[in-house]
Design goal:
By secondary structure, this protein is of the alpha/beta class. It folds into 2 domains: about 160 residues, Rossmann fold (3-Layer(aba) Sandwich), CATH 3.40.50.720; about 120 residues, N-(1-d-carboxylethyl)-l-norvaline Dehydrogenase, domain 2 (Orthogonal Bundle), CATH 1.10.1040. It has 13 helices and 8 strands. Helix 11 runs parallel beside helix 13 and helix 12 runs antiparallel to helix 13. The relative contact order is 0.08.
Length: about 280
């Protein structure tokens, strides 16, 4: 008998995961709140678009809540009120939330879990491939454990169990730093370098960043540091700051402190140089 999966939310993650389950041979329904281009896309991919729980099949095995963090509880309440949740596996994709936001479903007999794919979603076709190399952190009630493993197998992702006592705020911030904050930092680097490298700027930035990441992976972050901060070259750092606008100086000050901290922790920066650099950062703020 064909497995039936319902994906709630036709955004980037929802479309990508719906496609992953469709490619795995499942019967997939994509639930949205209003008409849009996602409906024709879904039909082209062999996915059934629906606009209400009344259209959803009652015999689904899995329901994936691919909605924004702030909407998960509300979506759960609607689902619990309009759909037969009993003995079905429900998962949300948020890195910020534990199982509590799915409590309305639990009270209706649903098996609940949190599954957070550690990857950015951008394009369904490429995301399906990226999922196969991704890690997915998961927290599940005992009845949802088997379903979680089945879903992870469909995605091709490697499940890592997250303990209930983990501070999800710090976990989520760590991932944001590695993706969105890094993206913003690379964008600033691009702006600073573009007058020199022109159309080749992104390639230069990407190579620099890739090499830095590889060095940090191989040798550790502190040992991988290079440049004026780790050398204690205060004058060069002052010149960097002098080239920036006041707004940019304030932005750079926090980044400067981060590098100083790492260099000092790795015993690569003398205490007196670290103190001078922190004073420069404080003045820039």
């Amino acid at each position: 008998m064909k497995v039936i999966t319902i994906v709630v939310g036709p955004g980037r993650a929802g479309c990508s995961l719906a496609l992953a389950h469709q490619k795995a041979g499942q019967e997939v329904y994509l639930l949205g709140r209003r008409d849009g281009a996602w409906q024709s896309w879904a039909k082209e991919k062999g996915i059934q678009p629906i606009l209400s729980w009344q259209e959803a099949p009652s015999n689904a095995s899995f329901v994936i809540m691919a909605v924004p963090d702030r909407q998960i509880l509300a979506a759960s309440e609607v689902c619990a009120g309009e759909y037969n949740c009993n003995a079905k596996t429900f998962v949300h994709l948020s890195g910020m939330h534990d199982l509590d936001v799915l409590k309305p479903i639990t009270l209706e007999g649903g098996f609940v879990a949190a599954m957070h794919p550690v990857m950015p979603f951008s394009d369904p076709e490429s995301d399906v491939l990226a999922l196969r190399k991704a890690v997915v952190t998961e927290t599940a009630d005992p009845n949802a454990r088997e379903g979680v493993l089945e879903i992870a197998q469909v995605w091709g992702a490697s499940p890592v169990r997250m303990r209930r006592n983990v501070d999800r705020r710090r976990y989520h911030l760590g991932l944001a730093l590695a993706s969105n904050h890094l993206t913003a930092l690379l964008s600033w680097s691009h702006d600073l370098l573009q007058p020199v490298f022109g159309d080749e700027t992104f390639d230069v930035v990407a190579r620099m960043a890739a090499q830095a990441l590889e060095n940090a992976r191989r040798s550790g972050a502190a040992e991988a540091l290079t440049g004026p901060v780790v050398r204690g070259d205060v004058e060069t750092v002052q010149e960097h700051l002098a080239s920036l606008t006041e707004h940019e100086q304030r932005r750079y000050a926090g980044l400067l402190n981060m590098v100083v901290d790492l260099a000092e922790q790795g015993h690569r920066l003398p205490a007196d140089a670290a103190e001078r650099l922190r004073a420069i950062a404080a003045e820039a703020r």
